[in-house]
Amino acid sequence: xxxxxxxxxxxxxWLDEDKGPKSRAQIETLVANQNxxxxxxxxxxxxxxxxxxxxxxxxxxxxxxxxxxxxSASQGLAAYVELQVPSAHERGVVIGHDHRHNSSIFAxxxxxxxxxxxxRVHLFPNPGFTPQVPFAxxxxxxxxGVMITASHNPKDDNGYKVYWENGAQIKPPLxxxxxxxxxxxxxxxNWNVEGIEKHELVTDVTIAxxxxxxxxxxxxxxxxxxxxxxxxxxxxxxxxGVGAPFAARMLTTFGxxxxxxxxxxxxxDPNFPTVTFPNPEEKGALxxxxxxxxxxxxxxxxxxxxxxxxxxxxxxxxxxxxxTFTGDQLGIIFAAAILDMARTQGIPDEKLxxxxxxxxxxxxxxxxxxEGFHYLDTLTGFKWMANELASLQNQGYYVGxxxxxxxxxxxxxxxxxxxxxxxxxxxxxxxxxLNADGKRISDYxxxxxxxxxxxxxxxxxxxxxxxxKMDRIFAHIRFGDSDSxxxxxxxxxxxxxxxxxxxxxxxxxxxxxxPVSYIRDLTEGFEMFDVDKQEASLSIxxxxxxxxxPVAKSSHMLTFETRNGGRLTMRTSGTEPxxxxxxxxxxxxxxxxxxxxxxxxxxxxxxxxxVQATYNKL
Length: 618
Description:
Blueprint: H1 7-17, H2 21-32, H3 36-43, E1 53-57, H4 67-84, H5 88-91, E2 93-97, H6 103-116, E3 121-123, H7 132-140, E4 144-148, E5 157-163, H8 174-184, E6 202-204, H9 206-216, H10 224-229, E7 234-237, H11 244-254, E8 260-261, H12 287-296, E9 300-304, E10 311-316, E11 322-324, H13 327-344, E12 352-357, H14 363-371, E13 374-378, H15 382-394, E14 398-404, E15 408-410, H16 420-436, H17 441-452, E16 454-463, H18 467-479, E17 490-498, E18 503-508, E19 510-511, E20 514-521, E21 526-529, E22 557-562, E23 566-572, E24 578-587, H19 592-610
């Protein structure tokens, strides 16, 4: 228990256990300088094993990612897997890594920990893309998988991503069990990785698994003859990541034209020199690719993030302006393309399944209602979607799509995770098909709006590093605040109280003047439909209004729907000091002006009525 140790005792324990020269030197310097504040920050609170594993800044300390914490995590994971998964040693573990600083040594230390417990290790010894690990877990029927990557995080971060035997990211209660096992096996045993690739229990699976991955994607090919004939031009950026060779091979698999690379961004570089954040979602991240496309007369920009599990795209319009598609727009474009593909292949609509996260667009649900395929939404994150998709596969469904608005898409049914490489090829193929008919992707999107209704969204966040202030903001939304700057109309929820606040729930009854029709609170454990039809003084018991989704007291998450077709979800980020919100308005009559006007009103209401950004100085 670190709470029983003084700062200097913690530092000494670290120095007794750590054999990494850089991390040891960092702690030794802080001790010599008596910098107790920095030592406390690095050592007191161990890095938490949470969403699919670990993610943290790379430096010394129990709260960071380094050789010691990776060994501890691997020892604990290996011990847990051998207890929970049948024939775990024989089935083995899949291990891969990206090109980030320390990724290679972290992967080899992970392999060492599993080998020491008698596991077979299916190793990707060279930098690769994240989707190769979940694919290999599923293909090899492995006991679990580990991918060393921090995806599109800044260069000083890294991560330890864990997949279970079904090929999906772990979800509760597995994360809790693994965390407990890590705590029991936290003292590092073996730091020696010399010759680990040649150990008798270790097999390099790179060639076999990549061949299998690309072969398994061929069912996504629609018209290879048309693909071969196309002269459509598109620019590709790997965002200084690993994606280029895999994207190139997937395009060849589809018979599609080769991409025009952004030379400054095409090769792996863990320092990400040309972008502030190596994330295709960030404003300006695609500017270099767009400029190159203008020079080459190309009409499309395609992008992966550094570990190639996400996909982004932009299209040049007839007026020479560029549209960068939102994550939700790409999601619905993929859904329509996959629906057409499934029908071509004779898959019945009722046996086709598509899933998205609860903060993503409701347009996929509207499409499902009209077309008849199976749809469901899940909590935020691919760990929830992937496990639902795995379950649906076991029930006999063809899982065509899983997507989240943060440009994550699963279109390859043998990869139960985001896969930016197969998504890129499916998107390029659609562009080629449309181009043959003189159309653009944007034309296709407009036809989908005409068919399913117009959906417009505004997703953003407020920075709030003060956790106490964050709690007060959500308390104001739930309980009202007589001292606040807001005059938001509230509806009383009696007999449903939080003891520490000694008050009843008083959720907003309107947002921007639009009546609230639905509330779901996954922190308090509350869900109600037809809110505006209830009496304001109606007594509601907790047992009668339990949400279907799991409740988590450790984070804030609220969803409201309004009678004008609005839907708002607000939540705290698990990795950043952000209050995120996801706002969408649907107009069934395709009245874009009205939908946009409503969205503007509701966006202002989120800021000033609910979050009170001016009052709270956010």
